[in-house]
Amino acid sequence: MVWVLLFVVGITAGAIGSLMGLGGGIIIVPALLMIGEYTSWLQGITPQNAVGTSLLIMVATGLASTLAYVKQRTVDLQAGAIFFGGSGPGALVGVWLNQGLDADAFFVYFGIFVVFVSFILMVRHRLKPLPLKTDGIQRTYINDNGKETAYGFSILPAVSISFIVGMVSGLFGIGGGTLMVPAMILLFGFPPHFAVATSMFMILLSALISSGAHALLGNVEWLYAVVLIPAAWFGAKLGAAFNQRLSSERLVFVFRLFLIIIGLRLIWQGVTGG
């Protein structure tokens, strides 16, 4: 039964993560912790185990999504590589910070972050890009209707933001797209589909670094990963396929409520110690 449950968690995390550019860790980490708390199946799993295992799954999710988005020609590979210049070192800092957190502190901080994510999802589609600056790297995108859209970014702000995103990823075991996608849309004028696709490419690179570091520290539950990885891979393929066809407003609304409940529960658990 536990393997079926883990498969469902993996496919759900992969699909929603790919669809929204989140990576899926925002689902996997609390799911593993709560399964361990409320059942006898994953007893003894620590926040470090949940984060390390989640980041390994992010490699599968990021790779599956990136391959699918590359076929759709919505990944800005150069921009993703530049962003990784910040997110890679940031991920290692996050892994280091994660090691110093006990379970109660992790629950409180992660719960606060989850509630913050729900707020970001609430306003994400209302974001309007700031006026495009003429310095830095410039891009143009022509959509299916032949309309040309300009976007671009300066390297220093882009690397600085991606460093914070990478640090949060290594600390909490999440992809970081929750922060990166709105930043790319609002600050750099990325078309939404390009922002999601490029975010997943950056998540893939960052997850490789941070999951490797967690694996060296013994924080990866390999047996659980054997089930979660193929499920997340398949789910990510589904999410990428639906990204350009599905109006996700209703899904985001339900997901946001779910995150608020989970976040408040984690905060309560951390504050009360149980």
Automatic annotation (TrEMBL):
In which broad location class does this protein mainly occur, judging by the first location in its UniProt entry? Answer: membrane
GO CC, sorted alphabetically, is: plasma membrane
Q: Which topology term describes how it sits in the membrane?
A: Multi-pass membrane protein
Compartments where located:
Cell membrane; Membrane
Question: What highest taxon heads this organism's lineage?
Answer: Bacteria
Q: List the InterPro entries.
A: TM_pro_TauE-like (IPR002781), TSUP/Inactive_protease-like (IPR051598)
Q: Which residues cross the membrane?
A: 7-35, 50-70, 77-97, 103-123, 149-165, 197-216, 222-239, 251-268
UniProt entry keywords in alphabetical sequence = Cell membrane, Membrane, Transmembrane, Transmembrane helix
Regions annotated as coiled coil: none
**Family statement drawn from the similarity comment of this UniProt entry:** Belongs to the 4-toluene sulfonate uptake permease (TSUP) (TC 2.A.102) family.
This chain belongs to which protein, by name? Probable membrane transporter protein
